[in-house]
Amino acid sequence: MVMKALQLSSSVSLPLDEIDIQAIRAQGAGGQNVNKVSSAIHLRFDVAASSLPAFYKERLLALRDARLSSDGVIVIKAQRFRSQEKNRDDALERLRLLICAAAKTQKKRRPTKPSRNAQKKRMDSKTHRGRVKTLRGKVQD
Q: Which of 2.40.30.110, 3.40.630.30, 2.60.120.330, 3.30.160.20 would CATH assign to domain 5-103?
């Protein structure tokens, strides 16, 4: 089953021809096979040149992520698995998650303050603790 587009949401999809995928040799341990087989995947995605909606592009370019280069290219290196197909799927999934995470809007924080009753209870408990501590002192004759 060959994918033609990366599905981001029910209405937004990204054509795979906009994503540059190259097979490279994986780093690290792996024995003799690691020197012969290009199983790692190097994925490059140019945000500005893509067909993503403007909302997605603005959010992605505003990210402070190490995977986003200064010229607006997302670079993902996948070498978790031994097979090239699994690494390719992993890289595409990580790109999808990155784009979807950038599209989510953070819930606006509303500052709260404790109720008057909670403040009164806190002050009463502090007064009580202070009184207990003064009673621990030396007895005066």
A: 3.30.160.20
The closest alpha carbon to 80, from 38, 139, 49, 39, belongs to: 39
Helices 54-61, 84-103: axis angle to 10 degrees equals: 100
Note the pLDDT tens digit of each residue in 111-136: 999 999 999 999 999 999 999 999 89
Q: For residues 49 and 115, which has the higher predicted lDDT (pLDDT)?
A: 115
Please enumerate in sequence order all residues whose Cβ is within 8 A of that of 84, keeping only pairs 6 or more positions apart, or say none.
23, 37, 38, 39, 41
